[in-house]
């Protein structure tokens, strides 16, 4: 089952700190005996860093894949350059391919993937187009598309990380409900 919502243009973030959200997601995963792995683009390993902030995370976090160049994006998705060009680097197709490959190459129960591309399309410069997806071993998927308005690339990276950790928490909670 895939749940998807319309693209969102985001300018502000939720009040909870990203560290608090990550800790909450990890606690739920630990209680449910779920393992997580990530595939990241624009966040450059920031999600993995957040999810490995404590020794307790070793029982939950399996591994991370970071793809920053076009070549590495092909490697991490298993898609050809032509397929990536057709779908777009920031697309649900690329994000789900990343998540599938993470599950194939890890012992995680849930994969979180981020596919992104900076403006100009569709909203011009100062925009980061992002697709965030999760996939679990039972085939349950979540997907969100965002258009972050940003003044600096680092700001977009932080906004993407927050949105990704929130989606991961949602995926963990849904998987926990299905398991118990």
From TrEMBL:
It is an enzyme of class 3 (hydrolase). Signal peptide: none annotated. GO terms for molecular function: nicotinamide-nucleotide amidase activity. Residues 19-170 form the CinA C-terminal domain. SUPFAM superfamilies: CinA-like (SSF142433). Gene3D superfamilies: CinA-like (3.90.950.20). InterPro entries: CinA-like_C, CinA_C. Keywords: Hydrolase. Its EC number is 3.5.1.42. It comes from the Bacteria. The keyword Chloroplast does not apply. This is Nicotinamide-nucleotide amidase. It comes from Novosphingobium marinum.
């Amino acid at each position: 089952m895939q749940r998807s919502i319309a693209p969102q243009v985001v300018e502000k973030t939720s009040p909870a700190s990203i560290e608090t959200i990550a800790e909450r997601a990890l606690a739920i995963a630990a209680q449910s005996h779920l393992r997580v792995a990530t595939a990241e683009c624009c966040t450059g390993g920031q999600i993995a860093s957040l999810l490995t902030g404590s020794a307790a995370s070793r029982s939950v976090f399996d591994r991370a894949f970071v793809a920053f160049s076009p070549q590495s994006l092909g490697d991490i998705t298993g898609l050809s350059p032509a397929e990536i060009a057709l779908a777009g680097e920031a697309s649900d197709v690329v994000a789900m391919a990343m998540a599938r490959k993470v599950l194939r190459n890890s012992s995680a129960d849930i994969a979180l993937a981020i596919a992104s591309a900076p403006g100009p399309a569709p909203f011009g410069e100062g925009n980061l187009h992002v697709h965030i997806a999760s996939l679990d071993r039972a085939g349950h998927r979540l997907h969100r598309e965002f258009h972050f308005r940003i003044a600096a690339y680092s700001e977009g990276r932080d906004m993407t990380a927050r949105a990704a950790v929130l989606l991961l928490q949602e995926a963990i909670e849904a998987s926990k409900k299905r398991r118990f």
